[in-house]
TrEMBL record:
Protein name as annotated: alpha-L-rhamnosidase
GO molecular function per UniProt: alpha-L-rhamnosidase activity
EC number of the protein: 3.2.1.40
Domain Alpha-L-rhamnosidase concanavalin-like: residue ranges: 358-458
Highest taxon of source: Bacteria
A Pfam family matched in the record: Bac_rhamnosid6H
UniProt enzyme class: hydrolase
UniProt domain Alpha-L-rhamnosidase six-hairpin glycosidase: residue ranges: 463-809
InterPro entries reported for this sequence: 6-hairpin_glycosidase_sf, 6hp_glycosidase-like_sf, Alpha_rhamnosid, Bac_rhamnosid6H, Bac_rhamnosid_C, Bac_rhamnosid_N, Ig-like_fold, Rhamnosid_concanavalin
Gene Ontology BP, a term: carbohydrate metabolic process
Signal peptide location: 1-22
Domain Bacterial alpha-L-rhamnosidase N-terminal: 177-348
Amino acid sequence: MKKFFLHTTFIIITLISFSAKAQNKISVTNLQCEMLNNPEGIDVVKPRLSWQINADVNDVKQTAYQIIVASTLENLNTNNADLWDSGKIENDESVNIIYKGKKLDDRQNAFWKVTVWTNKGEIQSKEKANFSMGILNYADWKSTRWIGYEKTSAGDSISQYSKLSARYLRKEINVKKQVKNAKVYIMGMGLYELYINGNKIGDQVLAPVPTDYTKNVKYNVFDVTSQLQEGKNALGTILGNGRFFTMRQDYKPYKIKTFGYPKMALQLFVEYTDGTKDVIRTDDTWKVTTNGPILSNNEYDGEEYDARKEMKGWNTTNFDDKNWLTAEYVQEPGGFYEAQMTPNMKIMGEVKPISIKQTPRGTYIFDMGQNMVGWLQLKVKGKSGEKINMKFAESLQTDGSLYIDNLRDARTTDVYTLKGEGEEIWEPTFIFHGFRFVEVSGFPTKPTVDNFVGKVVYDDIKTIGTFESSDAVMNQIFKNAYWGIRGNYKGMPIDCPQRNERQPWLGDRTTGAYGESFLFDSQTLYAKWLDDIKNAQTADGGIPDVAPAFWRYYGDNVTWPGTYITVADMLYQQFGDKKVIEKHYPSMKKWIVYMEENYLVNDLMTKDKYGDWCVPPESLELIHSKDSTRTTNGELIASAFYYHLLQKMKKFATINGTNSENIQYYDSLSERIKTAFNAKFFDSKTNKYANNTVTANLLPLTFGMVPENLQSKVFDNIVHEVEVTYKGHISTGVIGTQFLMRTLSQFGRPDLSYKLASNNTYPSWGYMAKNGATTIWELWNGNTADPKMNSQNHVMLLGDLLIWYYENIAGIKSNPETPGFKQIIMKPDFETGLTFVNASYESIYGLIKSDWKKAKNKLEWKINIPANSSAIVYLPTSDISAVMVNNQKLTAAFSSYYKIENNNLVLNLSSGSYAIVVKR
């Protein structure tokens, strides 16, 4: 494809011709450092800078740029680039430009702007951006001591159902001079809330993001200049348990990793207007108590809060803390200290209950109308000591009571004890629930829906994708996916938010992360997760199934650990992030070699753990199929997937420019595996692989292991299984579904993909929606299977569905030759049965839109291509006289400027807006 476009000339179609006046319609915006919206505490010595070009005119291309970086805003305003002046660089790149200026020191502030030259003229950014370096050296924390309280208190429990009261810490300081600027650096394990003079610092919740604290510990940075005042000030923190003091103590210690009691380390750097500086640190002058209102906070079981024990003014000055204890010096967690480069969680929305019903027992069931993740805020008046219990669940039993069997031993209950002083408003601090229904008991009056509001909580990342089509089932599935994905972003991608699991399983995101990237700006989240995986790797190369390895699941299979490689590939493909490949390549290769040396026998990968997990069973009551014709050979899955990963490693080696021996290694190993694979699993008489499951045929076909002259015959077997054996329904599990939709479309059956996407009978995504699902189930039969594994908010079964929505139906795909949507491939499957699709995607270059609809005799397609990008656009006709672009006809006179390819008219469009009409 790349060679074709280098050697063929295309018509460049523009909507508005450029004039001198049009320059005002071009601007440089969205200046970002490391793709962060709030770049405090950058933990990269050579950060990457990016920007977008916005234009109301067509055909805008960057030709050069100049970046100026200064140590102060005043220097920047006078163009005194005392940190870096890139000079004018003749280049069209506008993302991930590596800083090449002076060395950036600890806590260094940097202010920057960019001038861009385009084919339309010069544009200076009106925006001025800034970023700050974090504490880059471990030694700079040396004088800061970890403090806490390493004991249990009355009412605490170290058991399977662990209970531990929150730790409250405080210290008063004296600020004698006028403050110029102040920043606080805090590590609060497992979770913290920080206050200065009674005001909460930041709008984050459940901070910081979780890690394996023995490997790395994240600190957060806040500018608190406006919070400090001359004279006395009070610092206060509350420490919750989070993943540090784990939900299940002294329970399956061989499986569940524990870290200790909550603890914290803090540095407050203050610079005064006279140029002097001061540092306030955690030490033994801080005071601590566990005798506060948060009696327990356990992610599985809920939060207990006794408002009678509130300590008014505890985080302000002049509070009497004589009964508090002196904070103890405690052992540090052990992991390396790192600035958190991903957003914290926030309250990202609210949901009002849609109904309330009283049960025969006198309790009340609230229906939120949506399976959501977060918590309830309550408003109540009552007597001191009255207790309100709120129990959370995803669904109801036939008698209207909560269905809780699928929660396993998670108690999912919040308890609030009233203080009895007028209207009380409360919400939990250190837990979250996955739920649609809430059973409320102990409410002092008859509650109404106005007494409660649901708070939706997930990582503070932007929604960047929209999708709507003419098919109501597909639209509902998209909405369900959206709610399910965002609810499972918890500083890492977890599998489910409701039961006693909530773990970052790798296999759930092998391809799912790719689809998610069309909906959410998940780049920094998944870059952080790759670090978690790297940190969990064993010394000899093994990678676990869960990372961070809160559960010790080192099973040595291919399909789950392989996510390490596929997510890195996604970040490169979707966001143009080459850095993750450079950073993680050595560890990835270490795992590749580890698997070869330990499990490759006769050139086949012999180790598989999960098979094609969650194949739709033949009976609605089963979790796993017992029909051998439905299950795919594990050695086939492992060998094919290992081959697939070798191709990606070869790609990474090429990107990194590593020596040719690496590429030769991957080529040689791949060929050996392909030969052995086809020799063992392919039946040349029937053109079937193994027992002819869709997954058995699909993997080698998708991965390029099938001889080219036999591909259509293998595909015919796939089609027969889907259409005839399974009557147009899904028959694949987690592995096969990752490639099913795109492969059906790629080999000429987009109508069959559409049938699978629009079904509402079992098994299908539509069946879930038809049966009340508002997220995606863990099982295709999640409403009927044994309750021990039927989470109603999982994302692993999405497979490549969302990728297919965007790339194959909307026609928004990044050209692999130009990652990060520098060039877009727009080739929708118009002949699926849909009559319209309207989709958008906010790429790193800007907004991409694809809005098409089919009328009786024409196709209308509106396209938006961001500035400094371009698109290869496929129109479903070979008749150029049938095409109008922006009300301009294409005639035979221009036939040398575009190409007819497989009955498609192929155009190369520069940036801008286009209205295309194709007469049919």
